[in-house]
Amino acid sequence: MQATRHIHLIGICGTAMASLAGLLQQQGHRITGSDAAAYPPMSDLLASLGIPLAQPYAEANLQPRPDLVIVGNAISRGNPELEYVLDQRIPFCSMASILHDEFLPGRDSLVVAGTHGKTTTTSMLAWIFETAAAEHAALAPSFLIGGVAENFGTSFKLRNTRPFLLEGDEYDTAFFDKGPKFLHYFPDALILTHVEFDHADIYASLNEVKTAFKRLVNLVPRRGCVVAYDASANVDECVAKAFCTVQRYGFAADSYWRLADLEQGTGDTRWTLMRDGEPFARLSLPMAGEHNALNATAAAALAAGYGVPPAAIGRALASFRSVKRRLEVRAEVQGITIIDDFAHHPTAIRETLRALRSRYPGRRLVAVLEPRSNTLRRNVFEADLAKSLALADRVVLANVYQSQNIPEPERLDPAKVAAAVTQAGPLATLLPDVPSIVALLAAELRANDVVAIMSNGGFGGIYTLLPAALEARPGEA
What we know:
Helix content is about 30%, strand content about 25%. The protein has 14 helices and 23 strands. Helix 1 runs parallel beside helix 2 and helix 11 packs across helix 12.
């Protein structure tokens, strides 16, 4: 593109869109954007960058006329800005296509994909490369992550070096391109964490999901490498016909990268990483959960294949600070710990609650869920959701987010989920709105409780409303 252009992003508060806005601004372009509703962390990121954000969507947001419009994948026909773009023939494209065209040529595309763990794993990979760059400057990474990596305080970075690290999203690209975004990234190396049915709004079946991942694997050149989880039949199927080297990771005895002697404490996780049967490194991660040790192993494996030394990998993981909205402690009030987690799928909810059990042993665990993701809003995983939530000691459910947009035969029945959880042991309560949830929790919570608030959206501001209500309780100092 020419040196300076006015580029407008419709749906700029999406995690990847806000990150792209930052990359384009770093290239020297003038960036504007719009969205229906803004909430942290991406609204905070845009504010820190000085990128103007217009709300709500309106034709006036496209004045003066931009040189290019990037249309987010959540934007569909009927959006007033999109309709104006089409009527006026303003040039437009998708987020994924401009990444491919403007940022990936001449670089090594290192992609992290999978149903779960890709944001955390990409953040770990970026921090490993960043740590190694202190001694090997050519390893300094550019990256785009679907969340704010706390070690960097941002979700993107652009350098004049070869490694470009990308979170590879299987969700569709745009209203005019219904293929997954990650098919635009043409990976030189790939991490594949898990493959499960998800995104029930765009995939009709698990087979469709697997087809998307098979196509991604098929893009890796013969000289490349796929680092793939070893305990999933779906992953096995997706990598079976790869033309490149496939290195498996996990706990299987014959995996090329194997976790051995795993120890989980209240504040960290430690293990020996074996490479082709030989010790590679003793690793420590200041995070709870077996799933995070697996994420770190995948990142370590890809980094090692790129030439990052074991010592740099160890230093990076020992100092890794997680990602915003992934087991993030949002407040500690009167001995009550409030956790924010992006859990969007029953498997993610299960692993979140297991990790919190490990981090806070002996403490009462309260799970608060807003069924907001396009998968959780549907009844496809109703039974699995109840089983995952039953790992908590107390469960509070919100109504399905924008339930009117889901056909009733497909819609999750949260009352049914609450009944199934209660039958399994923990008391579960369904409440109609955030004020009701905050009132209940303010009445019930006691010192030493751990509250896991799980949503992939703003959840009506509960993350600030609940701490305020706890601080205002009568008789509490």
